[in-house]
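User: Could you check the structure of this?
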Amino acid sequence: MVAHRDYHRSERVGDQMQRELAELIRLEVKDPRVGMLTLSGVEVSRDLSHAKVFFTLLDGEEKGREAEQGLNHAAGYLRHALGARLRLRSVPSLRFIYDDTPERGARISALIDSAIAEDEARHPEGTPPEAPDPESDR
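Assistant: Sure, the predicted structure tokens are below.
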């Protein structure tokens, strides 16, 4: 009986690449633009020829873009080093992409918090907001 495969080979390769790249970047990449970063995901194409490597950085968007340039500059070396670690016929080409999702999430959270604080300031506890009078529309 053949089991239904929800976890495709490209996803398994991406997960392994993420683990290996995290170690390679930490130990091998000496570019000053690349600081402490977190690999947030690797998307590998179905034919295993290309991989998008997403990463986050706590230093802000400007430093993230610099790190992206540094990583893309080192992509050839990292691809070669991955080839030595992974058992693949051909290693996907790497493209590093700065992921600003955590920063956008923090901005949205701050906006929500300020909207709640503003609403609470307008309507102190115990006083419900005034409902529009249906008779006033006539």
